[in-house]
Specification:
cytoplasm; alpha/beta; about 210 residues; two-stranded antiparallel sheet; globular; nucleotide-binding; Rossmann fold; binds magnesium ion; ATP binding; zinc ion binding; binds BIS(adenosine)-5'-pentaphosphate
Length: about 210
């Protein structure tokens, strides 16, 4: 089963993908994580993407689709959680084509719906592990030892695009470029909307399990 986690920045896509990977036989494909890996390895693509990402803007479809195509060419085509991809109608169409060519498809799209006020609070308090990519939160999900990842002892960092002025640009791009995917996947009869504003991440996970019959 292939799943898309759709939702605004800070809606909990990464948090829920981590739980699905830990508890079931899923693999997470986060385009944000792939871009950040390329940035830290200073690849050509990383250099091109870096300025856009730290400004809170989307990377062009052409680059993003190519990166996903390469990823899928070399690995599994089943039991993938697409986290943060697709993010435009063009990307959704490209993904469909890539999967069809591999005799595969998207089975369900989970929309994590969160109020904007809560998104802001989550993003400004987020800390991430540069090594294992897990995300923490200063208040909601603090690490056991301040500033240190519970799993690999790396020093936690703040993402450069988690500054309030960059968050505003990311939210705007979610509204203009990504939210049309809600109707796109409704038409394909794949969308399940989960309202998650006041739910703990454990409760959200239960709802996702129900929706996926896991
Ligand atoms: P990406 O890394 O995908 O960022 P994003 O979509 O902005 O989403 P986030 O990772 O910020 O949030 P999340 O939903 O994963 O939330 P999380 O679980 O961490 O992309 C970054 C950039 O890369 C983009 O802006 C763009 O430039 C580029 N890019 C990536 N994909 C692209 C594409 N397809 N096309 C073009 N460009 C692309 O949770 C957030 C915080 O909340 C955490 O601190 C967490 O602990 C906490 N939290 C989570 N759930 C709960 C809960 N239920 N209750 C309380 N706190 C919670
Ligand atoms: Mg994420």
């Amino acid at each position: 089963m292939n799943i898309i986690l759709l939702g605004a920045p800070g809606s909990g896509k990464g948090t829920q993908a981590e739980k699905l990977v830990q508890n079931f036989n899923f693999e997470q494909l986060s385009t944000g994580d792939l871009f950040r890996k390329n940035i830290s390895e200073k690849t050509q693509m990383g250099l091109e993407a870096s300025k856009l990402i730290s400004a809170g803007k989307l990377v062009p479809d052409e680059i993003t689709n190519k990166m996903v195509e390469e990823y899928l060419k070399n690995g599994n085509k089943e039991n993938i959680i697409f986290d943060g991809y697709p993010r435009t109608i063009n990307q959704a169409k490209a993904l469909k084509e890539i999967l069809v060519l591999n005799n595969s498809k998207i089975d369900k799209v989970i929309l994590l719906d969160v109020e904007e006020k809560i998104l802001l609070e989550r993003l400004v308090g987020r800390l991430i592990c540069p090594k294992c990519k897990r995300s923490y939160h200063l208040k909601n999900r603090p690490p056991k030892k301040e500033g240190i990842c519970d799993f690999d002892n790396s020093s936690l960092e703040t993402r450069p695009d988690d500054k309030p002025e960059k968050i505003a640009i990311r939210l705007q791009s979610y509204l203009s470029d990504t939210s049309p995917l809600i109707d796109y996947y409704k038409t394909e009869k794949k969308l399940v909307k989960i309202s998650v504003s006041n739910l703990t991440s454990e409760k959200v996970f239960e709802k996702i399990r129900e929706a996926l019959k896991l």
